[in-house]
Amino acid sequence: MSADKCALAILGFGNIGSGTAELMRSGRERINSNAGREVTLKYILDVKFPEDSAFKEYFTNDFSVIENDSDVKVVVETIGGCGVAYDFTKRALNAGKNVVTSNKELVAEHGHELLTIAKERNVNYLFEASVGGGIPIIRTLIQCLAANEITEVYGILNGTTNYILTKMSDDGVSYENALKEAQELGYAERDPSADVSGKDTCRKICILAALAFGKQFDPGKVSVRGIENMDGLTVPPGSKIKLIGRAGKTADGGISIYVAPHVIDKRNLLYTVDGVFNGIVVKGDAVGEVLFYGQGAGKMPTASAVVADVIDAVKHILTRKAIFWEDGSDTELAPPDALGDL
């Protein structure tokens, strides 16, 4: 393959993987123009393939084919979890390939290790799609707010729980019925435990905290309360309940990270963020408070973030993009109340 071309492999052909493939095809000319070279899809890896897929010519079930193909410069990981996705990501990075992912669990649990490998191999590990779906929050923290000292980041980071809480507060629907409706509409998984327990929000706020404060935080140390027991709660007039992930600097220089439902009023920037939408507030010493709002999940919004990272990776094939954070395994987190009221 010539130097002005770059081959791409996609791992996983579920919602995000298939959306990425579709966007790579439909936006081919725009993507190539923005990347500065031709980006071609060469492989799609999965254990099962739909027989009638328009992308069947790219299918493989052997990762070593991708790993050993020197033409493949960028690998997109959309498998999810910390099992085979972790193994394939490490192998791809060690093979000198850039990796783009939407996998918040993997980034939250192993981001420091994977970024270290990327740094050693002079390749990129990019994860814009891991938080906020189509909201460009990762790139904003790294680039647009780089002149600021970030003091706090918090937000509605899970569309499933926000939809359920919106139905409960606006329409008086019970938790059980709101969850059932979310599942029928495809907003909630058949097993919604990661969402409603707050675990998904926890992983995402840990990623944002790592970017804001420069070290990895163990999700297992974070205080997390979900929305499973919200029925019967009285909400003051003019207020709403939102599940918030929050990370900030405390008065004594420590870091507090937690996830919990909050009662917020109209003065809060997140008050009007309803339904499946996400909203993220960042506080910087120079910029003050800024709000980022948009679809936090979904096939094409998330694929949009994935492809943006693909373009970024292609642009930085010869010069690694400077994303890194330190190991924070020995960090003791301050209690949630160390940040005061929202």
List the helices and strands and how they pair.
Blueprint: E1 5-11, H1 15-26, H2 28-35, E2 38-45, E3 59-60, H3 63-67, E4 72-77, H4 84-94, E5 98-101, H5 104-121, E6 125-126, H6 137-144, E7 150-156, H7 159-171, H8 175-184, H9 193-196, H10 199-213, E8 223-224, E9 239-249, E10 255-265, E11 277-284, E12 288-295, H11 299-315
Parallel strand pairs: 1-2, 1-4, 2-3, 4-5, 5-6, 8-10
Antiparallel strand pairs: 7-9, 7-11, 9-10, 11-12
Helix pairs in contact: 1-11, 2-11, 4-5, 5-10, 7-8
DSSP E strands, number = 12
The CATH architecture of the largest domain can be named as: 2-Layer Sandwich
CATH topology annotation of the largest domain: Dihydrodipicolinate Reductase, domain 2
In the predicted model, the low-confidence regions spanning at least 5 consecutive residues are none
The CATH fourth-level homologous superfamily of the largest domain: Dihydrodipicolinate Reductase, domain 2
What is the rounded distance between the termini? 54 Å
Q: Work out the radius of gyration.
A: 20 Å
- What is the element string, with H for helices and E for strands? EHHEEHEHEHEHEHHHHEEEEEH
Largest sheet: 6 strands, parallel
Count of structural domains: 2
- Total of helices: 11
Strand order of the largest sheet: 3-2-1-4-5-6
Mean of pLDDT: 94
**Assigned CATH class of the largest domain:** Alpha Beta
